[in-house]
Amino acid sequence: xxxxxxxxxxxxxxxxxxxxxxxxxxxxxxxxxxxxxxxxxxxxxxxxxxxxxxxxxxxxxxxxxxxxxxxxxxxxxxxxxxxxxxxxxxxxxxxxxxxxxxxxxxxxxxxxxxxxxxxxxxxxxxxxxxxxxxxxxxxxxxxxxxxxxxxxxxxxxxxxxxxxxxxxxxxxxxxxxxxxxxxxxxxxxxxxxxxxxxxxxxxxxxxxxxxxxxxxxxxxxxxxxxxxxxxxxxxxxxxxxxxxxxxxxxxxxxxxxxxxxxxxxxxxxxxxxxxxxxxxxxxxxxxxxxxxxxxxxxxxxx
Length: 302
Ligand SMILES: Cc1cc2nc3c(=O)[nH]c(=O)nc-3n(C[C@H](O)[C@H](O)[C@H](O)COP(=O)(O)OP(=O)(O)OC[C@H]3O[C@@H](n4cnc5c(N)ncnc54)[C@H](O)[C@@H]3O)c2cc1C
Ligand code: FES
Hints:
Elements: H1 6-10, E1 24-31, E2 36-42, H2 44-49, E3 55-59, E4 66-70, E5 73-75, E6 80-86, H3 90-98, E7 104-105, E8 107-112, E9 123-129, H4 133-145, E10 149-156, H5 165-171, E11 174-179, E12 186-187, H6 190-200, E13 206-210, H7 213-223, E14 229-233, E15 249-252, E16 255-258, H8 259-262, E17 265-267, H9 273-280, H10 284-301
Parallel strand pairs: 9-10, 9-13, 10-11, 11-12, 13-14
Antiparallel strand pairs: 1-2, 1-7, 2-6, 3-4, 3-8, 5-6, 14-17, 15-16
Helix pairs in contact: 6-7
The structure holds flavin-adenine dinucleotide (FAD) and FE2/S2 (inorganic) cluster.
């Protein structure tokens, strides 16, 4: 695979001269649920440069907010990258409505962040919770390709929300689905799956967890007594994505780091998750007002 130069990486941004009329084309869309959707975009240079664990900053149209999204998959042969998005606020809901096959994103910047450290670690557990299932997939695949024994554990509220189980089965030596109501796989949380896996394999070397902060916190607490290296992917609010604004700082037991340039992967045993969760809710009121205003504007246009 040809290496992509540093200069090339930071210039992977395509300007557009119009509202979703040019830019980066959406070539596939899949809806996993009422709120979760997949967009695959045509971007050969990004597909060539992307590594597991990295993210992009997307601007859907000229006036929209720039939002960070994990590269959930990349296909170097097809020249595409895939993002899985949860419609939680104004921008992601607007994209859910407007981003259809054949439309364009005005800019996609990246790949950003430090790639995940992948090697043949012996036995590794890759855990994804809810939307976190998508970004943990390229890591599970990369561990498998590096020769590791991969145990995939994914958690959802119920069977209707399950996605990509086929993709995981292809790369995992063992695969456990956990649902809150037991409608698919085992009834329980991903931490129950982790306990089962550790009991069966006392020689697990590493665990990677991606999902809601509370889930990652408890995954780290589950592995701590066993001394298993635990990496988590953090999602603090990002603004510039270049290490300049300080918006994405995260508190670790050995100091502060910026998730956009030092992460997003960090040692889960060092992360202050309570601080992360508090910081994630700093703008709740503004975000609520923004969605309400957008919903009113949509209704007014009908
Ligand atoms: C490294 C990274 C990777 C991410 N990957 C994904 C992904 O693959 N799929 C996905 O659906 N979401 C991902 N997110 C979260 C996504 O960026 C936010 O959901 C999105 O910015 C929300 O924008 P909004 O206008 O729809 O909602 P808002 O109403 O503005 O915000 C809803 C919630 O999203 C979070 N958020 C808001 N703005 C930002 C921002 N600029 N940066 C980060 N978080 C923000 C906050 O927790 C907020 O409470 C990622 C975030 C980070 C930092
Ligand atoms: S987003 Fe500004 S420092 Fe990371």
